Amino acid sequence: QVQLVESGGGLVQPGGSLRLSCAASGFTFSSNAMSWYRQTPGKEREFVAWISPIGIGTNYADSVKGRFTISRDNAKNTVYLQMNSLKFEDTAVYYCKVFRDGTAYWGQGTQVTVSS
């Protein structure tokens, strides 16, 4: 079965950096685009970044362009989110997602807290 496991979240000061990882299993990773989303309490989950199956194409939310970078290692079945110049408003639970066969699969999420 499809499994997505995020890691790398934590507490960071404004202006700092974190790298999130999402380890995938249960499907052919290199054949699927992957995405990162985030969610804060009381708000809907919002799109952060997307990467094509072999990593050539990427797309970002306007709020993170120029600060976040999505990448993947198909040999390790892992997608990453490098987050730089973090702001208070980046505080959220971050989820990775794969959409296949008409179904969206999500990981359990990893908490990112930006605080001084």
How is this fold's topology laid out?
Elements lengths: L2 E5 L2 E3 L5 E8 L8 E6 L6 E6 L6 E3 L7 E6 L4 E6 L8 E9 L2 E4 L3 E5 L2
Parallel strand pairs: 2-11
Antiparallel strand pairs: 1-3, 3-8, 4-5, 4-9, 5-6, 7-8, 9-10, 9-11
Overview features:
116 residues, single chain, globular, mainly beta, 0% helix, 11 strands, 4-stranded antiparallel beta sheet, 7-stranded mixed beta sheet
Largest sheet composition: 7 strands, mixed
Poorly predicted regions are none
Overall mean pLDDT score?
A: 97
Structural class by secondary-structure content: mainly beta
CA distance, first residue to last residue? 40 Å
The helix content is: under 10%
Please tell me about this protein's structure.
- The chain is mainly β.
- Helix content is 0%, strand content 53%.
- It contains no helices and eleven strands.
- The strands form two sheets. Strands 2, 4, 5, 6, 9, 10 and 11 form a seven-stranded mixed sheet that branches. The chain has a four-stranded antiparallel sheet with strand order 1-3-8-7, with no helix packed on it.
- It is globular.
- It starts with a strand and ends with a strand.
Put the structure in a nutshell.
By secondary structure, this protein is an all-beta fold. Helix content is 0%, strand content 53%. Strands 2, 4, 5, 6, 9, 10 and 11 form a seven-stranded mixed beta sheet that branches.
